[in-house]
Structures are given as structure tokens and as C-alpha cells.
Amino acid sequence: MTIAIELKDLSKTFTGGKRLLGKPRNVVTAVNRVFQDPISSLNPRKTIRQIMHAPLKHLKNLPREVREEKIREIFEAVNLRHEFLDRYPHEFSGGQAQRIGIARALAASAKIIILDEPVSALDVSVQAQILNLLSELRIKFDLTYLFISHDLSVIEAVSDRVVVLYFGSAVEIGPANKIFINPRHPYTKLLADSAPSIGQELSKSYMHEAELPDPLNPPAGCAFQDRCPLANSKCRQEIPSFVNKCHVNMQCLSAHQ
């Protein structure tokens, strides 16, 4: 419910020429979430069958036989065996539990799924399996993902558009391929230079060493000013507005020059 309240403005959002959501109350069913820790996000006292029935019963008010058929279809889509339904969350691996979490979101007929670090708790090999599954499901169910991660390789693999956040604010927004090929904001460049790459040495950071700003007493002007090599006196006074260059929006005063 908290997610629905926070995202109520999505009822006015459009993408690809289509309205994402209808009336604000539809946000409750149209938006769902997959959590970072897959096992702890599942109720340990309930079987997977009970967990899967809940959204179909309370949000869709479907009769039991219809719910069972729907669950069977969803489990096939996420590559889980039907006999798993009578087990409890602790009996599954992290990858299996995350598939169940994804299946639960699909059971609610979500159009938008918020994925909060969905593979960070998984082994690398399992991460790839989950990312491939998400890619398949996005096409099959016509889904929109809001994918939150600090792992640049994961973001690059799954994203069409990227929003780079610093200190709670967006600093660069644009197509994923443009941002990863040519990051423009100083903070985005720092992230790219910090990412390890096989066969290459880590780039020496050109950023200034500085403490992170105090969130209770944020500085005037740009929040990145103390670490930015391009900062000047104007950066310490004004909050930069977004500037569009090459289809990428960047919040940096140096972009105005």
C-alpha cells in the first residue's frame, strides 16, 4: 500500500504512447515489487501455494479453481515445478525464492514491477539466470521494470533508460547505451571509472576526496560540489537545472557552458 501511495501519480504517466495506469486506485494492483532478500520477503509460516493464492484472492476475487490454473501458468513462466507449491520458503535456494517473488508479482497482474536490488544477494551464475528470466517475462507479459541497483553491469544489461542518482537527486537521465558509452555528468564518470573490467586497470579517480554531504543539513548549490573537479563558485550557490545534450539530460552547470 505504501508503494501505491508513493506512486499514485503514475495514473497520469504515459510510455510508448500508451497510458500506464488508469484510475489512481488501479495503482494498488498495477504496481508490485520484488525485494532484495528473496527468502525474508516470503512469509515463513505460509506455504508457497498460500502465498500465491493471496493476491489472486484478495485483489482479483477469483474462485479457487481459476486461481489454481493461474498459478500453474505463472509457475511455468518462471520455470518452477508445480510440486514446489506445498513447500515453505526456507526449503528453497535464493534463486528459487526470487523466482517465487517474481511469480507473486505476476499473480497480481502487475504492469509495473519495482525491482529493488533483485540479484545482489544471489551468486553470479544465478544472477544471470534471473536477469534472463526477467527479460523473457518483460516481453511475454508486456511489463515495465523500475530496476534499482548499484551494479553497473547489471544496469547496463537490463535497462533501456537510466537515471543516475546522487544524494537523492537525479543527475543524469538518458538512454542506457548513450550513458554507458559516454557518461557526461562528473558523478556518472566516477561510477564508470570505478567499475572493474577484465584486462584493464582501474582508472585513477580524478575526483576530489571529500565527505558526503549531511542529509540533515545539505549544502547550498550542487550536492556534488566538494568532489567535483569542475566545481566553481557558481556551483556552490545554484542548484543546476537539467540540460539536454545528445538525448541525455544532465544536471550540471558545466553543461551550460
Structural class given helices, strands, pairing?
alpha/beta
The biggest beta sheet is recorded as:
4 strands, antiparallel
Which bin fits the share of residues in helices? 25-40%
The CATH architecture of the largest domain can be named as: 3-Layer(aba) Sandwich
State the domain count. 2
E-strand count? 9
The number of helical elements comes to 9
Strand order of the largest sheet: 6-7-9-8
Stretches where pLDDT is under 50 for at least 5 consecutive residues are none
In CATH terms, what is the fold-level topology of the largest domain?
A: Rossmann fold
Report what the structure shows.
The chain is an alpha/beta fold and 257 residues long. The protein has two domains: 2-158, Rossmann fold (3-Layer(aba) Sandwich), CATH 3.40.50; 163-198 and 205-256, no CATH class. 34% of the residues lie in helices and 15% in strands. It is built from nine helices and nine strands. The strands form three sheets. A four-stranded antiparallel sheet has the order 6-7-9-8. The longest helix has 17 residues, at 124-140. The mean pLDDT is 86.
Give a concise summary.
With 257 residues, this protein is an alpha/beta fold. It is built from 9 helices and 9 strands. The radius of gyration is 21 Å and the shape is elongated.
Give the topology.
Elements: H1 2-6, E1 14-15, E2 18-19, H2 27-30, E3 31-34, H3 48-58, H4 64-77, H5 94-107, E4 112-116, H6 124-140, E5 144-148, H7 152-158, E6 161-166, E7 169-175, H8 176-181, H9 186-194, E8 242-245, E9 248-251
Parallel strand pairs: 3-4, 4-5
Antiparallel strand pairs: 1-2, 6-7, 7-9, 8-9
Helix pairs in contact: 3-4, 3-5, 4-5
